[in-house]
């Protein structure tokens, strides 16, 4: 099995078996102000939202996780079937393996999502570093692979720096992103992979014409930590040490959400989002939707029903947050009162200096 595909299998195994969680999203420091007299019926609250013209039942995104190894087909099938049933958005993992390797079983790990989710909002995924090798036609091939409604370009340079075989040439990526955003047939989302996007970076991406920013901030799965485990397995001791040193690096998700929303009107908040209440807090901070990845992995291994069960729980938590803030619609939730306390408030104050 080629190296790129093997790496995908390694990632899933490590996430399932090892400690790859960090803390510090900042959501614990965000309190939504309680409305004791909401004057609405909880069950009549409208949780729908629109993403690139596609109406979703709730502003919840099953974040890009995997694909590129035959063992991941089952996971993506369950996720996509649940996204179809619950009408939420879903992304696939990096499609590099599907673009570069001629393997039908491997390709199915991606194509299965549209096969089982003909109406769901699905987005593809390529790395910013790969845009230095790909042209727009290559990215269109990734769109066609899953009949994608949008394309994510992921920024994972800390992860690449820890990988023994990582791609650490980040020169020219912004120009390449701008070219893809200008010419691709579908909207372009630029997403981090667990280290956040600060204000100035969000501004540069907005000026480059990207259609959305997924902040994927600090506080959830640490890809630096994952790569540290991989480095240890192959005896790359120095890379392991670097990976452990940087496992808690990044801009906290709550901070990144606020800063990116100041620069772009379509922000997806991910990175340590673990509940419907977190999604509600993210939307109050300015996001259009909240995304989760790791919490879906174990349910996806169990099957579609388990993923649907988690989505239903998230939706009820989100609806409850709307109810007790008096928010009848997602747009009203975006205007609800909130308070930021503790380290997150200190972080924001320091950033404003």
UniProtKB/TrEMBL annotation:
Annotated catalysed reactions: isopentenyl diphosphate = dimethylallyl diphosphate
Listed PANTHER family: ISOPENTENYL-DIPHOSPHATE DELTA-ISOMERASE
CC per GO annotation: cytoplasm
Species for this entry: Natrarchaeobaculum aegyptiacum
Residues that, per the record, bind substrate: 7-8, 94-96, 159
Compartments reported by the entry: Cytoplasm
The UniProt record lists the keyword Flavoprotein: yes
Main subcellular localisation: cytoplasm
Coiled-coil parts of chain: none
One Pfam family it belongs to: FMN_dh
UniProt name for this protein: Isopentenyl-diphosphate delta-isomerase
Gene giving rise to this polypeptide: fni
EC identifiers of the protein: 5.3.3.2
Entry keyword annotation includes NADP: yes
InterPro entries found in the cross-reference section: Aldolase_TIM, FMN-dep_DH, IPdP_isomerase
One Gene Ontology molecular-function label: NADPH binding
Keyword vocabulary terms for this entry: Cytoplasm, Flavoprotein, FMN, Isomerase, Isoprene biosynthesis, Magnesium, Metal-binding, NADP
Complex formation: Homooctamer. Dimer of tetramers.
